[in-house]
């Protein structure tokens, strides 16, 4: 029958299709790789001259006397915007490295209680805002890169502070279930509408420019947080309600001590 004939012809056609498809895939991933390398190189190359520019702007601001309000304002804006661009380039560089698997991780057993206490103290000092820490008495241990996890946590706490009123606290909560550690960062801020929640972890995605534009940021923080936490075998999730607040949760597998190991691991 016609159907049988088609079946006889199919393998050759499928083979042809598969070859064309594979070629296409190969070219695409080559182009993708080139694009990542390009972004990485450009970020790297631009950072150095911009750092020099910031240096000059700062020294100009320090040495100049009798500046008019306009000149003072212009210098401050130029410095702040250049510093923001440098941060963005560093973020892009980190993302490009994460994409190509070149981001260096030093994962080791880590007591989250200690790390969270440090992050709370640090953020509180810098922001002068109330950050409440709630955690279990017992140590919660995961296998993670301490500096990278700290970077993610600071970023989430910063966002919590940035997108809520100055008199509102941010809560850091640590709990553990049978196999996982959960870190919640909760704020009572502007919240994120459901329609944006899917896209919030995309690069450069910011909810409403009119709402967020006035707040310093690059739109890369959550993309980096997701990329870093996934590289540590964890995940990041979000629950949020507009005008009520947001809770970002980091979930990481618990570290299981090998029978012959000495416990506890380094508490720094
Ligand atoms: P940004 O530098 O803009 O803060 P992020 O990647 O950290 O970049 O966040 C992306 C966007 O997600 C923000 O611009 C903001 O619109 C939204 N967002 C992030 N965290 C919060 C939060 N805690 N509350 C409300 N909106 C948030």
Automatic annotation (TrEMBL):
Domain HAMP: 1-33
Residue ranges of every copy of the Histidine kinase domain listed in the record: 41-256
EC number annotated for this UniProt entry: 2.7.13.3
Cell compartments where the protein resides: Membrane
Entry GO MF terms: kinase activity
The keyword Nuclease is annotated on this UniProt entry: no
Keywords, ordered alphabetically: Kinase, Membrane, Phosphoprotein, Transferase, Transmembrane, Transmembrane helix, Two-component regulatory system
Listed name of the protein: histidine kinase
Reaction(s) catalysed by this chain's protein: ATP + protein L-histidine = ADP + protein N-phospho-L-histidine
Species this chain originates from: Spirulina subsalsa FACHB-351
